[in-house]
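Lay summary. Proteins are chains of building blocks that fold into shapes, and those shapes determine what they do. In this project we predict the shape from the chain. Here is one chain we studied, written as its sequence of building blocks.
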Amino acid sequence: MSQTNPLLQMEHISKTFPGVIALVDAHLSINPGEVHALVGQNGAGKSTLIKILTGAYRRDSGSVLFDGRQVDFQAPQQAQNNGISTIYQEINLVAFRSVAENIFMGREPRRWGFINWRKMHADTAHLLERLSISIDVTQPLMNYNIALQQMVAIARAISFNSKLVVMDEPTSSLNEREVETLFTCIRQLKADGVSVLFVGHRLDELYAICDRVTIMRDGRTVDVREMQSLPKVELVAKMLGKELADIRRHGQTSFEIGQHHTDQHVLLEAQGLRRGRALQGANIEIHSGEIVGLAGLLGSGRSEVARAIFGADPLEEGKIRVEGQPAHFHAPTDAIRAGIGFCPEDRKVDGIIPHLSVRENLTLAALPILSRNGFVSRKKQQEIVDQFIRRLSIKTAGPEQKVRELSGGNQQKVLLARWLCLNPRLLILDEPTRGIDVGAKAEIQALIEEFAEKGLGVLMISSELEELLEGSDRVVVMRDGQTVASLQHADITQAAVMNAMAHGNDEQETNNTEEVQRGEA
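And here is the predicted shape, written in a compact code that computers can read:
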């Protein structure tokens, strides 16, 4: 495929928000009639780059060349009018309006001042025919499944004579048959000369539909490659910021040094967890005093497993046992009663309550045991707060200080204290050290190890491979909603974890460790 005349060329794009550098000298190039993948972990800069392209954000520096001319869109509507349409993960159409009305909303064809329904229906049917879709366009959109609703969104996009369609996580809510319907549509767009920017995280889907891939990490473009010439394990390595040569040389960790004194007592066992496409048969087992690391790329199902175990998301199938007894968690309160605590991934959104004090945040989960006849014992509450501020070395002006005024590391300690004061049997930690400084990170890791030594079971999710390798007794790897590996002690290496991330349950590929060496060439 010729790259001499790209349809889109973004170069030296930088963007800074208050206190955050989102993009640094990023670039993206898409050819006419190409399906181009954009991949990266959380915080890589994918969404910011797309929003700059479509006019939702203004860039600080850099240039955007589209269809042969320099552009600087001021709003998404302007980008759409100039040939760039975006289809978001959450379909932003009107469910109770007809298919035809959704496609031509705000642009209805008119005759003598009235909507020309016959023309609108015919034009809609023609657009859908281009995508090999045949449905009754007069029916409300809600009458059709999510896959067909996405087809309608694509039809609306190409009705603007779009030359580039941006698809943000388009398969996240689709089943396998619906994904293939979407891919048929994408192939038709490609045949018609329309380019597609495909933002996704499921490796098999990327390799099935995309021609090239741009890999981002920490706001930078780290590589651009032909999809079929890029081994999966190398793609995973680049997303994680690893060098294959280093992985081969330093495959083993000093894991024996940090191994905890786990016992054979099974604290929690989860089998066959299923929920839509997010969980496709996840299994996990945690022993008392054991730190189990949960590894996987973005969208692998790590957080979904944690939320399912904690009762935050309902399961369609699967069994959970606590201390050998069947457990049915219909809500987080059920899990809390069973001795399970959960520190979520985004502490600012799902963890702390910013306008409340350190005292109120720390004892939030303990209120039922601190209350009598509806009144909270302030004395008991204060005793707990003082104890854990001292025990966890929380740096605060006092218990009444607003928690939002603390550093990220101290906010995380408050969340840990919230659960530790209940003396739980199992603590689930989703990205416990994200966004905190090195010193606080080391303190939190030491606290996790300290409580594990005393018998606390820990399920720790982290995007940082080193954190899992160094701090876990066992590492469970997730891929596309499934548990694909459970590595213990000497088997825990960067190469083993990344091969499992890349190839899943495909033994032929997983065991082909020579691909790690080949990827270096």
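What the prediction tells us: Residues 8-230 form a domain with the Rossmann fold fold (CATH 3.40.50.300).
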